[in-house]
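Why does residue order matter? Because the sequence determines the fold. Keep that principle in mind as you read this record.
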Amino acid sequence: MGKVLNANRLIDILVKLGKQLQEPDEQFDQLIESAHQYNAWFISKNVRQAILLIGNMLNREDLAHWFSLHKRKEVRIHEIKKVGLILAGNIPAVGFHDILCVLVSGHQALIKMSSQDQKLIPYMLQKLIEIEPAFEEQLVYIDRLKDFDAVIATGSNNTSRYFDYYFKRVPHIIRKNRNSIAVFTGDETAADLTQVGDDIFGYFGLGCRNVSKLYVPIGYDFKSFFEAIEQFKWVGNQSKYNNNYDYNKSIFLVNRDKHLDNGFLLVKPSKSLQSPLATLYYEEYDDIKSLEKELKLLNNQIQCILTTIPLNLDIQQIHFGDSQKPRLWDYADGVDTMHFLSGIN
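Structure:
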C-alpha cells in the first residue's frame, strides 16, 4: 500500500473530519433526514445525535491523548494486515470506531456493513477520503469475508458462537450481548434522574450502553424517577417502540407479573440484566458491599455502570447522562482494540 501517514498528519485529518460531522453539509443532512426510510429506528433526531457525538469525539486534545496511549508511529509497509470488520447496525454508525482503529493502526479494513445501516458510514468515510485520498486503499467494502488476517465481529450471543468457531484460527475480537446498568442510592436529584432518562431512552434503548436495569435500595420509591423522566414520553410516538411497549404490557398483565407503568415505560423486578424493549428491570440491594460482590459475578455481561458513587469494580463507571458519550479510549467490552491491532503482526 502507498502513502504512510504520521501521527500529526492523522490528527489534522481526523480533526477536520470531526468538524465536518459536527456541521453536516446539505447532502449529508438529506441522508440523515431520510435514514428512517431504510431503518425505522433511525429517526433524524437520533442519527443527528450519533453523528454529532462522533464529530465531538474527533477533537485534537482527545486524539493526541489517544495516540499517546498507544505510542502510535508510522506503520511499516510489510506490517499491514487485512482486518475483517463485521459491523452492527443497532444504532446509527455504531461501527465507525472499529474502522477508525483499523485506519489509525495502518491496516486495511475489510468492511461488511450491517443490513440495517448501509449508508451513514460509507458517506462519512467518503468525506475522510476527500480530505486524504491515501485512505482509499485502506477501505474495502465486502459482502463476504475472505482472505483476512484478523477479525473484529459484533453480533448477538447466538451469532458469537458461530463467529468463535469460524474465526478460531485467526486473531479475533468477538463481541456478544452486553447491557449497562445504573446504581441508585436514593439521594439522586431530579436532574440526576432526568439524565438517567438519556441513558435509558437514547436510541430507544437499542445500544449496549443503554441502561436496561436499575439497582435501587430496598423500598425505593419510583415516584420521583417517573416524574423526572416524563419528558421522554415522546418515545411512545415511535410505532415500533410503542408496539414493544404494548406487547410487553399485555404479557405482564396476562401473567399477572408485578410491574410499574408510566404510560411509555414498564418497570419490572428481575434478576436478569437484559430487559425487553420499552421495559426497565430493577433489583433492590441491601448495602453497597453486597451489591459489589453480586456485580463482580456479572462483569462479562455489563458494558458500563451509571452511578454517582465510586464502586470497587473493574467495570467502566460513568456519570448519569453520559452512557452514549464514550471517548476514543472507551473500548467496547473493555477490550483495547488498538492493542489488539498492534499485536496481529
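The chain has twelve helices and twelve strands.
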